[in-house]
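Researcher: Let's continue the batch. This sequence belongs to Cysteine rich repeat protein, and it's 89 residues. Same format as the previous ones, please.
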Amino acid sequence: MCRSITQFCATLLLVTSAGASLAADGTAAQRAACTPDVFRLCSSEIPDVGRIKACLRRERQNLSTSCQAVFNELDRAASPRPTPASVKS
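Model: Same format as before. Here are the structure tokens for Cysteine rich repeat protein:
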């Protein structure tokens, strides 16, 4: 019993850390948005953060609305934005 509680706590810590990496130093709200999806969809990938992120992207259509919003936000932030010099009148 004690071992399973310890394992759960360690897993929770790792998932929280994975969420932090996932959201590129995201807010606690962003991490919280995806943590349930990590457990639900990608628990077999814990503790490997890279594999967790790949799993969440692969399972994107199955993510909760709140976690999808985190990925949408990350995608928008990563999209190149036109600079004023490159915008044509």
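Researcher: Any comment?
Model: The chain has one domain: 2-77.
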